[in-house]
Amino acid sequence: MAKKMHDTPNLDQLESGPWPSFVTGLKHLAEDKDYMVDLLGQLEESYKTKKGYWKGGTVGVFGYGGGVIPRFTELKNEDGTPKFPDAAEFHTLRIMPPPGMHYDTDTLRKFCDIWEEHGSGLIAFHGQSGDIMFQGATTENVQKSFDEINEMGFDLGGAGPAVRTSMSCVGAARCEQSCYNEAQAHRAVLNTFLDDIHRPSLPYKLKFKFSGCPNDCMNAIQRSDIAVIGTWRDNIRTDEELAKKWFAKHGMDELVNDVVARCPTKAFQVKELSKIKAGEHTSTVAVNDTHGIEISNQDCVRCMHCVNVMTGALAPGKDKGATVLVGGKSHLKIGGLMGTVVFPFIKLDTEEEVANLVDFSERHIDFFAENALEHERSGEMIERIGLSNYLDAMEIEVDPAMVNSPRMNPYVRTDGWEDEVAKINAKKQAA
Amino acid sequence: MNQAVQAAPAAKRKPKETGVPDNTKYLHPTLLKNYGNWRYHDRPRPGVLHHVAHSGDEVWSVRAGTQRQMDVHTIRKLCDIADNFAEGRVRFTIRSNIEYIVTDEKKVAPLIAELEKSGFPVGGTGNSITMIAHTQGWLHCDIPGTDASGVVKALMDELYDEFRREEMPNRVHLSTSCCEINCGGQADLAVIVQHTKPPVINHDMVANVCERPTVVARCPVAAIRPAMVNGKPSLEIDETKCMCCGACYPPCPPMQINDPEFSKLAIWVGGKNSNARGKPTFMKMVAAGLPNNPPRWPEVGAVVKNILTVYKEDARPWERLADWIDRIGWPRFFEKTGLPFTKYLIDDWRGSRYNLNASAHIRF
Questions:
Q1: CA of A117: which chain B residue's CA is closest?
Q2: What is the predicted pLDDT for the residue at B1?
Q3: Which whole-number Å values give the CA distances from A94 to A88, A164, B66, in the listed order?
């Protein structure tokens, strides 16, 4: 039995209602932990005053420079002692999840036992960067709990100016739209940078995210410095059995209004069967005895919409790989940026092809470490120096797939134009 | 005194730098068997995905909402359910929903019953309103303007039915963020703190706590400069330039940006992560000035529900919030939702000219 609970009239109101209540969970933990009794006390005070009461500090584990988020209470009595002394230290361990966030219950139960013994008993699945967040341990217990979690085969994630914990989608494990082995790429890349994850020494944070298709379930384009998005370059595959099944259920109105009309490049047409033309770059499939679909794959931008609506009837092609974008980030400092295409297509089928992605990632991080200003993300650095200079440094050839359009102003010095054309022509001839 | 009894200091354990663990042993056996070899999926009912592999194997994934910030008792309860129904395997989605995988269709209904009996709503698939991506808030963040888990609990209580149904035009992703850094991320609809007053500086503390050049460099509008105040090195703010983003507060806590009254909440709409149909989009601010009103933030809940209700009634199938507004236009978005379009919603940040209407395209 723990000490007496503090009154929490505000938090109590978050116990009613149908959605699972974190307050009920906190109270359950407080039944036998003074630590959580006082945590509830401080949180209630925040609800009363509308102010936060945690400050950072320096807490870590032996051998690493990051991965623990230290929190010390700032809610003090007049004599400087903590108002809720049992919860005066409430640090978080960020632990990297397995790709796709799959677990067995044995692992989860062990996490629970460790955290019940050494920590608060509160675990978040997962934080916004993908970490399992073991929330709430005293300075003394951080090392103990890490040692036990580490012995289970789990490792600390990133914090501060470091390579951060990554996420990959469920992908090949359960999704027909997966275009590469997300888990393999995720581990190959991240596990190359363990030093940069555990010992923060970059200009600022650097994030990778791995989505298996352009639906981008990991929000990679908007939230990662290096986004690896699965795609394919051959024709959309078709399955007549499933196409007919879909059409029988949904009919012509839905096919026209929900699929044809929503194709962003008008690559998708419905035609009478006799008017459908097969071709090297065309996907065709009948939906009933009179009508069928004709997709011009050279016009298709692989947006996924028709494949999402008619799953199985339509599917990504067989020549799969990924598009890589660089520079996504949120507001601070110059405003939100999405990633920019730097590789329209890479293959990721073999270990060697995955190693090429790792190699690019290493060169990017080296360049970022050398050239970014303090607290500048990759996207801000590229905005400052221009994409062309970045591509030069990375030895990546320019490609019109990298831009929405060519430039719209004349403010550029073009006296190297002939040289560039000559280089391009020489490459064409050599090919 | 016998010196030999004194224990040597314990050797410190070196971490095993194992990195991201292999997920193979955590995969449900049928997922492992059909890895990379799935044919199609459908959704037999809200909260259930049915995947069929090229081998003919089938799995049903049952998705349930959680509170994300979970006590060990809750996690053990979820584990018991996995052991009873799903071969001891679970996975989590990016929005903190839990998924159970079964190979026997007959297990789906009892699994759903067990989850709902235990307080975990089944849903969040397809065209539903799914769980809110969120941050730490007062529970754990060092710079929060509001709470996170509490806002989410209050909103999800309101949106509970829509989580358990698939009746929206397309999927709806929500996020909340307790400061303008927006850790919650881009979403169809987001609730984000919006400060309205410049930071209040504790000049006694700045010199001791803040690396002043770093703080000066952090300001997006160059409104901060070094100054001597009361004989102490400190920082001052040009309040005519300051747009109250709070970027100076994390590197310099004596520049307090959070205020119980003047830290407000703003609503943003139309973010889309996916490349489906149009390219990904950033969300746009459509309402601000909402009070930070714990424990249930009713004013925020009312605006959120209003926007989602109008969207549900007005959008066509497969239109995400951004697609819907693309079709009806911003004037009608504000007309239909009844939200005031104020001058503060006209962008004046970098690249803002591209957000202005340079055409005669006007809907009447």
A1: B72
A2: 44
A3: 20, 10, 20
